[in-house]
Amino acid sequence: MLPPAARLAARRLLGLASASAVQSSARRLFPSPISSPATASTAAAAATGYFSRSFSSALNYHIDSPENSPDMPWKFTEANMEKVKEILSHYPSNYKQSGIIPMLDLAQQQHGGWVPVAAMNAIAEIVEVAPIRVYEVATFYSMFNRTKVGKYHLLVCGTTPCMIRGSRDIEEALLKHLGVKRNEVTSDGLFSVGEMECMGCCVNAPMIAVADYTKGSDAYTYNYYEDLTPKRVVELVEMLRRGETPPRGTQNPERKNCGPAGGNTTLLGEPIPPPCRDLDAC
Amino acid sequence: MAFLARALRHSKPYLSSRSPAVGASCRWISPTASAGSPEAGAAVAPADPELPPPREPVGGARVELPSNPEDALEVFVDGHAVRIPKGFTVLQACEVAGVDIPRFCYHSRLSIAGNCRMCLVEVEKSPKPVASCAMPALPGMKIKTDTPIAKKAREGVMEFLLMNHPLDCPICDQGGECDLQDQSMAFGSDRGRFTDMKRSVVDKNLGPLVKTVMTRCIQCTRCVRFASEVAGVQDLGMLGRGSGEEIGTYVEKLMTSELSGNVIDICPVGALTSKPFAFKARNWELKGTETIDVTDAVGSNIRVDSRGPEVMRIVPRLNEDINEEWISDKTRFCYDGLKRQRLNDPMIRGPDGRFKAVTWRDAIAVVAEVLHQVKPEEITGVAGKLSDAESMMALKDFVNKMGSEKVLCEGNGPNPPADIRSNYLMNTSIAGLEKADVFLLVGTQPRVEAAMVNARIQKTVRATKAKVGYIGPPADFNYDHEHLGTGPQTLVEIAEGRHPFCSILQSAKNPVIIAGAGLFEREDQGAVFSTIETLAKKFNVTRPDWNGLNVLLLHAAQAAALDLGLVANPTESVKSAKFLYLMGADDINLDNLPEDAFVVYQGHHGDKAVYRANVILPSSAFSEKEGTYENTEGCTQWTIPAVPTVGDARDDWKIIRALSEVAGAPLPYDSVAAVRNRISTVAPNLVHVDEREPCVISAEVKPPVKQQVSSVPFKTVVENFYMTDAITRASKIMAQCSATLLKN
Amino acid sequence: MAWRASLSRSVKEIRFLFCQSSPASAPAREFVKKNYADIKTSNPSLPFLVRECSGVEPQLWARYDMGVERCVSLGGLTEAQIDKKLEDLAKAG
């Protein structure tokens, strides 16, 4: 006879295990060697716990590695330094720290998709704050990658509208094709897959965004590829691998932007002007 | 624990015999329609004789209403009207009204964060409960702290906090003094509804002093705000977001600040605890003794927690004038030095050079015998850094009675300026430093010499953007400062008006000059101080209403030594000594001591000087004796014995008294009161305890100094912050700190 | 004041104790302010301790050899009288 709290807890765990049909991709990401129900459910529970906690690819503390250590010398390039000055000109001189976010973004683009600790220290010096303040900003936002990502960082939207349109299958297809786990970089350094929140393309779900770090910070692009199917997304990846630029936006040839397949059924002409306003008289 | 007491007090009506049907008298229960409205309460208050007297502010605090009546306003807390100064928050208004509102992230000495939400109270006409720590109190506001909404809010917040909090109470050091435990007992509900997985967080390495178990952290950010505001080092931050937030330094960085131990007191849960004290004791086993710290000249007020004969830990006591609520790391963690290298038996060095333990009778007899064999002018007495005023008085009296004038204290230099008190004290007083707007630090690095004075300067610089100019060797400061120069030449330039810093000094309303006691050791000490005094006169630093000329002393015994007149020249006294009486003096230079000098070492640790001693007389340390210590601002304080003394050790002054008896020159006092009586004839301010006697005779009465300043630059006086005296040198924790935390 | 020059021969330490603000101590305060420099110049190594403390009766202490001390109360004395007392103490040693 279990006490009520324990019964509730057990029911919750079983509920998680039964919901694992939806989270099949989750279990495959963290495969448990023994597929007994108990460990499977704990794996699912652990998996849920993991997913519900952190979206960022990295830990909230820094681990030194040969390519990421505070004594690595890092500077903005000359061109980027100009951009930095332009960024700083937007903010009052005693509030330079407002420029931390755009500068981190610039540093990320310059460094090929991720921000090393040395870059954060450099930004701290420019902005005249203590480095910990920059670390706080960098760890807060999940789009600042603090560990290495691929030259093409593929971000799959996993929010509800995309999810019910099959974004889990897209992600699964990508991961299977590239042979990596989420947030892991392929061995040739070209691709990595991460999850993103809703990017506003719910009408064209499911979609991915591709952050293109191959051409440095001057030619950095962040394009959406929408209306995907598992087959199409693999094609896209291969196109990227060959160095081509796939057409951005909806991948469904019958749709135009967010219009329906087969053309718009509304908004076919110019919108009716507002009734009372005589624009010429103003 | 105050919350628990108050909660119990509030529950009293249920236990009393008063009938609950009498609505108006049971005011603590959730308000009914009639008795609930504050108007009814306020109207009833004066008339009803059964009502309790008006509530006292929390903790017996005194509330100073501003003199201008425009600046005070009236609010209603639970029906009671209170007058508060303008600018007070709702939480502070409730404190004035005697209601202690539970909180985790709010701390009266730190900036307001408002992120724990435990302080939610109901304010009339507000749609939601209000975070009282952040909401300014507006005139006529009706604040209700014991309504169902407020109670439900507290229970809810507590439930959320406990959701991810590990079940560590049995193994957590904070148990028994944990804010979370106390507030959940007083304000939380009895059951939780959380059945999912709790999150866990990796522990961070902050050094050998602060133990971190970050899973217990409730993200109140008190430590982050303390580090950046009070300690002045921006090391800690809140990384990540949401329930995955972690407090840390991001990169592996040890907390090297000298105030880092205070985060242990500040953390409301067991996330940051004392590493040396980990798993040693529970707080209810400890007996707290309110005493004074002697590791530096600040005289921070501490409470020594002991269990039996052992000092388990040292925690700060509140003293607004000296150390507020903080103590430095050295003060906090030196206690384990009290257990090592202790001298516990009188010893005499035999002919083979080895020490042999003897009885007190024999030891004193031997010393007295030698005393009679030397000439009076060959007797020298040296008091140590940690000596209390009673023992220094006894030493001086005894040495004088034996016919010698050579009694001195370590660290006061060749020509101690003991005549005029304002020449060696912090005349502005430590609390007075807050009013300054320009600081000129001459030859002193307050961060390592007197960490609490540095904390006060940091507080002023942070609050008012005060300017700091520093003359001395390049040093680490945790506030913005201008490094003006390295030696007395810069001082001369400023005194003559040739330096750019002069304009800053000129425009200052309350300038402060702090000269370090390291300057006492210089050959040109007189000239340097004369230049400083000229500077002070020129820039209006000393005025009838403001005395900004200060000397920062280094050791606990210095001020009292100078007050009592221990002014011999150390080099000459040591050179000519045939009988040297070292009373805890380990840092005196004994190079010139004659080979055949007879050295008696009276102290509590076998530190440096015992190697040269012929006789060792064990005495008690500061935690074991009643002693009078005067801090650098002239405030006299008493230490209280917390633990029994070690072995056969005795109080310093008693040993000298006994020696004087056997030597045939008995001192005229037999009790501590009698010694203090004698002290009152020499320096009466040393018997006015906990009081600071300001000086009216200024340095202007001194004759002009003909000496010139030399060009020797100022030196760093404290090389190793963690090891400055016998107790800290014997401490293992301090050794770990020196090895890992010093910035070199 | 010839005796001032030979002060340090007989006296080993001089102590002035007085209150910072009481009128009874005012002559003592003035005496110290006016005469300290002079006495100190002629006796540079003599400890001339000035100890202010609130509520204390003005006193002058002189310490001689072998720790013998002599005290004179300065209550009600003028500056000239204080000077005379100091001289007496100097000669008594």
UniProtKB/TrEMBL annotation, chain A:
- Cofactor(s) the protein requires to work: [2Fe-2S] cluster
Enumerate the CDD domains for this protein. TRX_Fd_NuoE
Annotated keywords: 2Fe-2S, Iron, Iron-sulfur, Metal-binding
Q: Which residues form a coiled coil?
A: none
Q: Which domain of life is it from?
A: Eukaryota
The GO terms describing molecular function are: 2 iron, 2 sulfur cluster binding; metal ion binding; oxidoreductase activity
Q: Cellular component GO terms, alphabetically?
A: mitochondrion; respiratory chain complex I
User: Which biological process annotations from GO are given for this protein?
Assistant: mitochondrial electron transport, NADH to ubiquinone
InterPro entries (UniProt xref): NuoE-like, NuoE_dom, NuoE_N, Thioredoxin-like_sf
Q: Where in this protein does the record put region Disordered?
A: 242-264
Pfam families of this UniProt entry? 2Fe-2S_thioredx (PF01257)
Q: Which family does it belong to?
A: Belongs to the complex I 24 kDa subunit family.
Identify this protein by name: NADH dehydrogenase [ubiquinone] flavoprotein 2, mitochondrial
Taxonomy of the source species? Eukaryota, Viridiplantae, Streptophyta, Embryophyta, Tracheophyta
The gene name on file is: LOC100845688
TrEMBL record, chain B:
Give the record's keywords alphabetically: 4Fe-4S, Iron, Iron-sulfur, Metal-binding, NAD, Translocase
Q: Where is the 4Fe-4S Mo/W bis-MGD-type domain?
A: 286-342
Q: Provide the family line.
A: Belongs to the complex I 75 kDa subunit family.
The GO annotation for biological process reads: ATP synthesis coupled electron transport
Is Transferase one of the keywords?
Answer: no
Organism's domain of life? Eukaryota
Supply one GO molecular-function term: oxidoreductase activity, acting on NAD(P)H
Query: Locate the 4Fe-4S His(Cys)3-ligated-type domain: which residues?
Result: 149-188
Q: Which residues cross the membrane?
A: none
The cofactors it requires, by name, are: [4Fe-4S] cluster; [2Fe-2S] cluster
**What is the protein name given in its UniProt record?**
NADH dehydrogenase [ubiquinone] iron-sulfur protein 1, mitochondrial
Q: Tell whether Kinase is among the UniProt keywords.
A: no
Q: Where is the 2Fe-2S ferredoxin-type domain?
A: 71-149
Coiled coil, from the record: none
Gene Ontology cellular component?
A: membrane
Q: Which gene encodes it?
A: LOC100844331
Which PROSITE patterns would you find in this protein's record? 2FE2S_FER_2 (PS51085), 4FE4S_HC3 (PS51839), 4FE4S_MOW_BIS_MGD (PS51669), COMPLEX1_75K_1 (PS00641), COMPLEX1_75K_2 (PS00642), COMPLEX1_75K_3 (PS00643)
Which InterPro entries does the UniProt record give? Answer: 2Fe-2S_ferredoxin-like_sf (IPR036010), 2Fe-2S_ferredoxin-type (IPR001041), Mopterin_OxRdtase (IPR006656), Mopterin_OxRdtase_4Fe-4S_dom (IPR006963), NADH_UbQ_OxRdtase_75kDa_su_CS (IPR000283), NADH_UbQ_OxRdtase_ferredoxin (IPR054351), NADH_UbQ_OxRdtase_Gsu (IPR010228), NADH_UbQ_OxRdtase_Gsu_4Fe4S-bd (IPR019574)
TrEMBL record, chain C:
Q: Does the keyword Electron transport apply?
A: yes
Q: Where in the numbering of this chain does the Ribosomal protein/NADH dehydrogenase domain appear? A: 20-93
What is one Pfam family matched by this protein? L51_S25_CI-B8
Q: Which GO terms describe its cellular component?
A: mitochondrial inner membrane; respiratory chain complex I
* Keyword field contains DNA-binding: no
Q: Coiled-coil annotation: which residues? A: none
UniProt xrefs under InterPro entries = NADH_Ub_cplx-1_asu_su-2 (IPR016464), Ribosomal_mL43/mS25/NADH_DH (IPR007741), Thioredoxin-like_sf (IPR036249)
Database matches in SMART domains: L51_S25_CI-B8
Q: How does it sit in the membrane?
A: Peripheral membrane protein
Which UniProt keywords are present, listed alphabetically?
Disulfide bond, Electron transport, Membrane, Mitochondrion, Mitochondrion inner membrane, Respiratory chain, Transport
Chief localisation class: mitochondrion
The SS bond pairs are 19-53
Where, per UniProt, does this protein localize? Mitochondrion inner membrane
What is the protein's known function? Accessory subunit of the mitochondrial membrane respiratory chain NADH dehydrogenase (Complex I), that is believed not to be involved in catalysis. Complex I functions in the transfer of electrons from NADH to the respiratory chain. The immediate electron acceptor for the enzyme is believed to be ubiquinone.
Question: Its family?
Answer: Belongs to the complex I NDUFA2 subunit family.
What is the protein name stated in its UniProt record?
A: Ribosomal protein/NADH dehydrogenase domain-containing protein
- Gene transcribed to yield this protein: LOC100829755
